[in-house]
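Hi L., both proteins are below.
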Amino acid sequence: MNLEQTTDRLILRILSADDAEKVLQFYKDNAAIFEQFEPLIGNDFYSLEHQKNLLTYEYQEILKLHMLRFWIFEKDNPDRIIGTVSFHNISPNIYSSAQLGYKMDQHFWRKGYCYEAIKAGIRIVSGDIGIRRYEALVLPDNTPSICLLKKLGFHKEGLLVDKVFLQNRWRDHYLYGYIVPKM
């Protein structure tokens, strides 16, 4: 698998600890938005050291094919992270499934970038690892994310009650699923 993939408008890149400053800036720029939808992992999340450690850990997990995270860049600005799409809990063989995660810099919403990156990511993970089922969790009131998942072909499969501890309380999440069409 290549560490860098391209689409019509984007570069999808696997990063290393050397890129921690870019990742930290991405998270700091979008902290108010992201913290509505995700729990913070550790009290030092917004530190350079934490991001270096996280990128090192993720890179090791990528090598084992347990997860895959692409950081999203515009082709016209290949040095600024505008988003990320990740595939985690990758289970090949009889389960052939992975969980999808994504986030975009708030200044790049509604441009179709997230859609483009996820489509490319699914194509790559399906082709290189053989995954055919994808799952995504979304808060019931996150209408933009629900619309994105539907546009991608995901279908709501149910409600997971008290799934994630977020903003100091347990929050329900919808489970959306997508099966790669047979070729």
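That was the first. Here is the second:
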Amino acid sequence: MSDVTAAAPQQDLSEVQDWVTLLKPRVISLVVLTGVVGLLVAPGRLHPILAIAAILCIALGAGASGAINMWYDRDIDAVMRRTQRRPIPAGRIEPGAALAYGVGLAVASVLIMGLATNWVAAGVLALSIAFYVFVYTAWLKRRTSQNIVIGGAAGAFPPVIGWAAVTGDVTLVPMLLFAIIFFWTPPHFWALSLFAHADYAKVGVPMLPVTHGARETRKQVLIYTLVLLPLTLLPSLLGFTGWLYAAAAVLLGVEFLRHAIAVYRDRQDETGRSLTEDRPARKAFRYSLLYLALLFIALAVDKAVLG
């Protein structure tokens, strides 16, 4: 009897963990960070309770998008090695329940954002969810190798949402932050796709390494990185940030460029496949996550210290 009693809480905890997994919590963490920074650097103030509500809505909106994405992609997730253990393909959560969960959270996040802050922020949040679900997941992902380039816009909205929650408008600065994330996304995701290309090829998802080869993907990683780095300096050049952010952008950017060059120069066979198990790509992918987080933290610190 005691064994059964002890097993029940563990089963309940495991089920809760599955519902949390549907929200893609690792993705949410970076989304929330960039949204918080957008909120912090915006001119004006938001009551702390309303600010917390806005951040929660950004997290819920991103999580809802992830849940709907998992519902839509359950067929290919069941085949791809790195996604087979997700709750839906593993049979731990019913697809219909996952869809209802995602849609419910999406609607709630937009309504609460509108009531707690303003409807401009709510509208941008709704746009980000719709873009991820309909434009990236349902339209682009399985149809074009440019899926992550165009669809990556969905992940670039959080700082715009945070800014709009405070100001009620969208101006040049939040759009610059949007552009930084937009151009960061391809080298970040293509680094991942270099060492996960076999999974994508297996299910027919036309990621760049599958359609254009590993060598072209490496070149594109380097090209987008070269475009991204000067873009990160625009907030300082336009007078929005000071030397702290500019110094961080340069230092972080140089390291990002070093990783991109290593990916480009990775030892390859005649087909362009890595002879080093894509170790440079794996390192570049991990660093890209740290890069964006530290870049936005530097932006917030600069505004807090230098005003």
